[in-house]
Amino acid sequence: MNALRESVSLAEEMVRFGARAKVAARGMGRSAPHDKTLALTYLADLLAGRERDILAANQQDVETAREAGLDTPRLNRLTLTPAIMDEMRAACLHVAQLPDPVGATESQWQRPNGLLVGRMRIPLGVIAMIYEARPNVTIDAAILCIKAGNTVILRGGSEALRSNIALATLLQEALAHAGLPADAAQLVTTTDRAAITALCKLDQYIDVIIPRGGEGLVQAVTEAAVMPVLKHFKGVCHAFIDADVDMDAALNIVFNGKVQRPGVCNALECLLVHKDVAARFLPMAGDRLGAVGVELRACPRALPLLGPEAKLQQPEDKGQEFHDLILAVCVVDSLDEALEYIARYGSNHTEVICTRDHVNALRFLREADASMVAVNASSRFNDGGQLGLGAEIGISTSKLHAYGPMGVQELTTTKFVVLGQGQVRE
Amino acid sequence: MNALRESVSLAEEMVRFGARAKVAARGMGRSAPHDKTLALTYLADLLAGRERDILAANQQDVETAREAGLDTPRLNRLTLTPAIMDEMRAACLHVAQLPDPVGATESQWQRPNGLLVGRMRIPLGVIAMIYEARPNVTIDAAILCIKAGNTVILRGGSEALRSNIALATLLQEALAHAGLPADAAQLVTTTDRAAITALCKLDQYIDVIIPRGGEGLVQAVTEAAVMPVLKHFKGVCHAFIDADVDMDAALNIVFNGKVQRPGVCNALECLLVHKDVAARFLPMAGDRLGAVGVELRACPRALPLLGPEAKLQQPEDKGQEFHDLILAVCVVDSLDEALEYIARYGSNHTEVICTRDHVNALRFLREADASMVAVNASSRFNDGGQLGLGAEIGISTSKLHAYGPMGVQELTTTKFVVLGQGQVRE
């Protein structure tokens, strides 16, 4: 009975979060660009002025988590440093200076009856952001949502609770300072995971939910949510080395894709090499990658062309997101076979072709189904900042609404605006 | 055990549908504009040449449904006539002639490192369309999906099964004639509703699911689906008559909105009148609407200004989609109160202001949250054809991906294409 009563009251609490967010969304929707800019620049000041308090709160979080045995990668993501605080401040100022995306009618056309029809860019409304214990995401996500005129309900991993409370206080202070509704950024402070399930049901208040974290979290939110989900699944990225290719450029691209930051979603996981170039390309690639400790898992045709440390590929190595210095390697007979392989084992994230052949480049761009497709460039460019979006809240690997990095623009939508002089329908 | 075995085999059958659709999607994605045009024009020919067979199959459906006691509105929607066949043919030719939406890079910019970054418009992929027993939707939905380079899995209401089989046969014939994969349009022929639930789980094959029909169907699909849903909920549309207004134009707009076709989602359900104009406007509106039998349900301030047949409004009349010749009427003190009312009782579908006041017009356009917001024009214009989109597959009332009528363009998405000369990330 107690558990039932608690879960009812938790659900009711989430309803209140939703209702407040929806009221605040109207205020944000009609806010002027200047007020949003002011909130973000003031937030940068607050982050500087209160740095000591925030780092102290974070220190407590880190100590508690360490005692509880949190693993090192997660402890690292939980830890705020003066350098990360600087980055958060820089992000506030950067997003403040981006062009305001909402309010303007982007295109307009006239109908035969004289109606002027246009599309006006507007905020999405209320965004629920569910993420792991990474306190900097609290600021990064909130400032993008605010810039786009949305309100956000933040639910971060429980290990970061003290840090998030300290940061959310600043967010609300900055909003109020600029005359914007403080409820435009609300933090859910309960650590009960049932809060997430409750939020997933509130489609009368929440326009979109964005899970950001491990595959389990994303899957759970996707299954429970009745509102649209913008999600970011895994990145199984391939590079195809075509027969006619600039060998040095291709080597650099493969090396950069695998080695620069192997733990991220736009790192390379598989190298596909055209049979006509395999005997020249693979020995060089094996040397270069082997020298920095990349483990190569090769198909039977590739194996003899690589160094003695290369291993024979197992079936599960295909389509695997290694998140590590491991690379699958396959020889293919043709561009068609490469495209077939990518269609089967890719994850719609990032696909690269290295080629000098114009027709093959165009075919790859058109036919490889991924949120970013590149010719002669590293997979590591699939990132909002690198592509020129200014900043990103995540990379969408599903096709609706946004496919690829989501910046401020992707946190908006359009509505039809119709200007008449009394027209009615015949 | 038998039921379990059946549902397992049904789920497996749906997996096969999904897998075939996904294979066909690659063929559609690389198809040339000409092939899609050819398929659609040939389909128009087939609809003419086989009209007798289709009408005969439909006649059987209608008779069976009548014997089973289907109500008249649904029998009407089930029935095909030579006139509806003409409309379906015209739709094929019209959609064939629309500009091809896919393949081009719509915008491109250069990064400081020389990378050219662009957005290429691409098909969504595999679309599952779940709809009621309206055989013309089989053609309307399929041709829009095909034009946009998608493949579609069609699951129509079971009462229309014979008609849908006849129509789907023509769809596949037309696709094959144009050298396109016949599996680009597949009809699910099982009448077991478990097929819908099974489709809702296939996010490895299906990119988006579109339920079109009653609120129960939409709700069920939304709750079960793990992939994105493009949905069309109810339309509770308001018209606000401002203090400074062209009285005749406003009367026409209200009359058209309520009377021209009261059973549809963009019909008016509620009239909000500024207090300064209520004493002049409402008696005229009452006369004009009363003359054609519209039942008026008025707030206490509006009631004495309307004829004797007007009724006092009950709380449930607010936010009600009457789908009938019934109109709620309220007097409000200001534009702010009207916007407050719409925020509370509207359904994000269509909102109209009648005004001569420029500032109020701009505020209403910006602040009323609906997929179409109109100044001095009828709510009935919220329709893909009327707004100039060419044709529509439905009207989205949720904001992600599409908000408002969804035409061919809304059945596509964009991916990032990156053209490099060997760039890697620093």
From TrEMBL, chains A, B:
InterPro entries: Ald_DH/histidinol_DH, Ald_DH_C, Ald_DH_N, Aldehyde_DH_dom, G-glutamylP_reductase_CS, Glu-5-SA_DH, GPR_dom. NCBIfam families: PRK00197.1, proA. Residues 15-289 form the Aldehyde dehydrogenase domain. Keywords: Amino-acid biosynthesis, Cytoplasm, NADP, Oxidoreductase, Proline biosynthesis. GO terms for cellular component: cytoplasm. Belongs to the gamma-glutamyl phosphate reductase family. Pathway: Amino-acid biosynthesis; L-proline biosynthesis; L-glutamate 5-semialdehyde from L-glutamate: step 2/2. The gene is proA. Its EC number is 1.2.1.41. Transmembrane segments: none annotated. It comes from the Bacteria. It is found in: Cytoplasm. It catalyses: L-glutamate 5-semialdehyde + phosphate + NADP(+) = L-glutamyl 5-phosphate + NADPH + H(+). One of its GO terms (biological process) is L-proline biosynthetic process. Pfam families: Aldedh. Catalyzes the NADPH-dependent reduction of L-glutamate 5-phosphate into L-glutamate 5-semialdehyde and phosphate. The product spontaneously undergoes cyclization to form 1-pyrroline-5-carboxylate. GO terms for molecular function: glutamate-5-semialdehyde dehydrogenase activity; NADP binding. This is Gamma-glutamyl phosphate reductase. It is an enzyme of class 1 (oxidoreductase). HAMAP family: ProA.
